[in-house]
Amino acid sequence: MTTSFLPPGAYRPTNDRWGTFSRLAASLPEGSVAVVDRTVAKLHPTLISTLEARKPRAIVQLVGGESAKTFTALEKVLAASLSMPRSGTLLAVGGGTVGDVSTVAAHLLKRGVRLVQVPTTLLAAVDSSLGGKGAVDLTVKGRVVKNPAGVFHYAEEGWLCPEFFSTLSETQVREGSLEAWKMVISLDATLFRRYVRKPPELNKLVKDARGLKERVCTQDPYEHQGLRRVLNFGHTFGHVLESVSRFKLSHGDAVGLGMLLALDVGRLLGVTPEPVAAQAEEALAQGPGVLGRERAAALLGRAPMKDVVTLLNADKKAGAKGELRMVLLTAIGATEVRDVAESSWRALWPAWTKGVRP
Question: Which Pfam families match (predicted)?
């Protein structure tokens, strides 16, 4: 079946277009709806006027961050899009949270409309803006649980506009780089060796990461075969750190620390050889600049254990006995999914809360 006959949101190969936003926006159909990160609109004053020139039905501005991934924000996007026909286009201009809620909205509107992703952060560019996944958060027992309610809805195009990356902070560049290095460490040993010798320029990092993720998603577009679990390397405890920080710790930084903890679990279980763990940890420190273990210790040390268990059970619970289904490194470029008993990760807790490598 050719892609022209696929319903909106169905899997299709990534269609990336690079260029300035004004040039790419010229192809946006009139009568579309745009969802825009408010901060991005302020940093790039011509963005809104460029969109207005395309006579959109609505331009919805959201505050980026986890507040964008709520049912309240989702309802705002849906309400502004009611007049859009099923043949319409929803344009998401922002970081991962704006992209997430826009993906869910595109899936629900008229039972599916065309989606175009315009990632404005490095993290969204290398990861969340492709792969078809979108989700919103829920609050469970007073804690925000990430992504329990979501959809698969693939974008028909991804617009990569380097001008948006020029206004990113050092923190934003680091967190996007950590997600990109996550894919390199877990998927491509050859590329890892090149990166260690000479870290790539930003545009090359984006292209490489998107290529690696596309390679995985092509084989398992809807996560039916479990092949996409590799992309969750570092996410199990990363999501816990993110949540117990009340999202003051950015997602990319949380995943970076989560990778360190996953390396510890792998070494404990004999899955990750010691030299591999040491090589990966050193690369994360020297390349993208993973935060120190003391940051994880500060967060975990003040988190009630019952809250941590609740978050893990809600996020990655795998079995009836509460095992975690974790992605563990077996070699650079290779991983294995293991069910990890609570007693195993609890054995590492004393070292984690002291900020030392077990």
Answer: DHQ_synthase, DHQS_C
